[in-house]
Amino acid sequence: MKNTTDIAVESIGLSKNYGTVTALKSVDLKIASGQYYVLLGPSGGGKTTLLRLIGGFLRPTNGQIYLHGHDVSNVPPNLRPTSMVFQSYALFPHMTVAGNVGYGLKLKKLPSAEIAEKVVAMLSLVGLSGFEDRLPHELSGGQQQRVQLARALVLESDVILLDEPLAALDAKLRKDMCFELKQIQEQVGITFVHVTHNQEEAMTIADRIAIIADGELIEEGTPQDIYREPVKRFTAGFIGENNIVDGKVTAVKGTQAKVDVGSTTIAANSRSKNLSVGDQVAVSIRSELCRILGENEKNVRNVQKIPATYVEEFFLGLTVSHLVRLKTGADMIVRESSDRAGTSEFSEGDDIYLAWELGDARLHTS
Amino acid sequence: MTDEFSSVWSYRLKWLYLLLLVATLMVPVFYNLYISFNKFGFGAYNYEFTLQWYSVVFQDQLLLSAFGWTMLLALCTVMTAVPLGLVAAKFFKTTRFKVWFVALLLLPLFVPADIVAASLLVFFKNLSFSLSWLADMTGLSWLGGWFDLGFMTALIGLIIYTIPYIFIVILITMGRYHPQQTEAARSCGATAWQAFRDVEFPQIRAGIFSAAAFTIILTFNEYTRTSMLKGGFDTFTSVLISQMLNTGMSEQSYAMGGIVSLVAILTIGGIIAFTMLRVQSLERTQRLKVNADMSG
User: Fold this and answer.
1) CA A56 to chain centre
2) Residues of chain A contacting B185 with CB distance shorter than 8 Å
3) Nearest-angstrom CA–CA distance, A42 and A160
4) Which of A215, A222, B173, B199 could be bridged to A25 by S-S, CB 3.0 to 4.6 A?
5) B203 closest CB neighbour out of A94, A134, A148
6) Is residue A141 part of a domain?
7) Is A38 a residue whose pLDDT tops 90?
8) pLDDT band at A327 (very low <50, low <70, confident <90, very high)
9) Is residue A235 situated within a structural domain?
10) For A142-149, what is the mean pLDDT?
């Protein structure tokens, strides 16, 4: 037993192979008690495998899982202090809402009156009072997910695992449910581990986010850190809308590095990284921090800029995106609020500059 | 799929075809029943309804004994083969080698009944001989006699025969079951057995009961394997067929055929009626709740 009681979930060197396919490669992860923790990543990246390993639905190939300091690596799901909310189809269709929510309590052999009391309280918490006698097929998708949540919460487990719980809902309902999930989690104070591939969902609810891709834990941090200061190139490419240019370090001076990106050389803060001349790096800039300079503005100082060609403009409702093409052929996006955007002063084929402030660029060595 | 632009006559012709097909399949059965209720028997010019041939059947001690043995065989086959078929279907849902699994499990269906029966007969004879020899050599008398032709060997033959059918029937019902529900039950604290009992079984119950009913019908109808492996006792079908072969069809034979047909039709009809009534009842409940919501 490990003496780390404020850590709700810990994995050490956790890996899972399916025959010759490696779904998860030696993941080390710590989730503090009471956090809303999101495992975010592209489909097939290994995040659901990690969640299922935590829940006991898979046996690890290597490594250990600790729940509140107890090694549960070989403990079956019914004996773990976890409850799971599934993407869909997981309500018992032959049981009423009350039957579903009270099922775990019945297995614990609680008195019927106590079960009924807890079920009513939990349905009230998830906003489904009066739905006790409904059958699952009589509920909407959002209501079904609330019942699943109530069924998990009523057991008062240490950790609630949520496997893409909002994926089957429409965009509006998903957004509303995000806020509700966060509020409920704050109210009950239980550790939530939530898997999603939707970054907006992750940003809305997470206290911390772990980026999982190709079976690896790429990066972990608060939503703000992950969005504003991604360490890895993959994170910059996955989170938000970033323009990424690859290049080679040509000079390092203090905290600043010069990077040859093909058509020009740009400067970027080295972010305390030990850089050497010749290192292959990437520089990322959020699209909303970029702007377009015309030929007549090419002498503007104190900005970083790359020569490019204007391609076209896309109206996206809240924002307007401008597509520009670098001399290397790479496409970049410049995004601005649609309220501020007038008719673009540029036309297709115009020579322009893609520009940004020095401090807005992030340099990635991996 | 309905083609809304097709002619109404095309639709009617399809129904006509279906009814003719069913009629063709069922006419011999109903004709047998018709004769079995005629006082004057097969080929008579006159027709007078009677139950006397059925009465004769139920007064015949040989037939009653055969009926008892058949029921016992059917029950033992159900008790053994249905759980085995269920386990096979559950394993099929989780295995990665589905094609091989199905091919191997359904293979016995493609071997002619008399070949399977003859093979089992030779196998049991040799096994029985070997075990008797071993019993003599070791003095362990309980070893002998297990596979002498009789109830046990007939039962094994029927289990081998019915498992592929049971597997298919249960698997069809299982197709609608989502395994996440088992995981959800485990996550609520259920053991694997509790998850099956409380969550999966109620949803595949119809398939299991249908498989059991189908097994009873198969056992009643089966002749080749049972006749070769049964040893000294008689089953309903073996009596019926031996009567037909030895003395030709009597009025009593038609009544026996009628009994077998009625057992099959009533069992399957009962299952269909129960399923349809259950679906209607669920739909009615759902409509009532939706109406209550809309008015409230």
Assistant:
1) 22
2) 92, 103
3) 22
4) A215
5) A94
6) yes
7) yes
8) confident
9) no
10) 91
A136 and A13, same domain (yes or no): yes
Distances (CA, A) of A299 to A294, A303, A325, B167: 10, 10, 20, 79
Q: What are the chain A neighbours of B187 within 8 Å (beta carbons)?
A: 55, 77-78, 82-84, 152, 161
Token pair recorded at residue B284: 């009615």
B204: contact with A, CB 8 A cutoff: no
DSSP string, B185-203: HHHTT--HHHHIIIIIHHH
Tell if the CB–CB gap between B183 and A104 is shorter than 8 Å.
no
What's the total number of domains in chain A?
2
Q: Which of the listed residues A201, A228, A255 is the one where a domain comes to its end?
A: A228
Residue A1 C-alpha from the chain's centroid: 30
- Rounded to the nearest integer, the mean pLDDT of chain A is 90
Contact B184 A107 (CB under 8 A): no
Q: Which domain holds residue A322?
A: 241-364
Is beta strand A280-286 parallel, antiparallel or unpaired with respect to A291-294?
unpaired
Whether A2 is covered by a domain: the verdict is no
Cβ pair B183:A57 closer than 8 A: yes
CA distances from A203 to A221, B99, B128, B272 (A): 11, 44, 73, 52
Helix, coil or strand: residue A96: coil
Q: Nearest CA to CA, how far is A93 from chain B (Å)?
A: 8
Minimum-distance CB partner of A77 among B180, B186, B198: B186
CB-based contact B184 A148, cutoff 8 Å: yes
Q: In what order do the strands lie in the sheet with A70-71?
A: A21-32, A7-18, A62-67, A70-71
* CA nearest neighbour of B235 among B249, B250, B220, B247: B220
Question: Mean pLDDT over residues B4-11, rounded?
Answer: 82
Indicate which CATH number applies to the domain containing A111. 3.40.50.300
Rounded CA separation B107/B110 (Å):
6
- Smallest Cα distance from A138 to chain B, Å: 7
CATH code of A354's domain: 2.40.50.140
How far the first Cα of chain A sits from its last, in Å, is 35
Question: What pLDDT is attached to residue B261?
Answer: 87
- Residue B287 clears pLDDT 80, i.e. is over it: no
B interface mutation test: which of A20, A67, A92, A151 has the most B CBs within 10 A? A92
pLDDT given at position B286 = 62
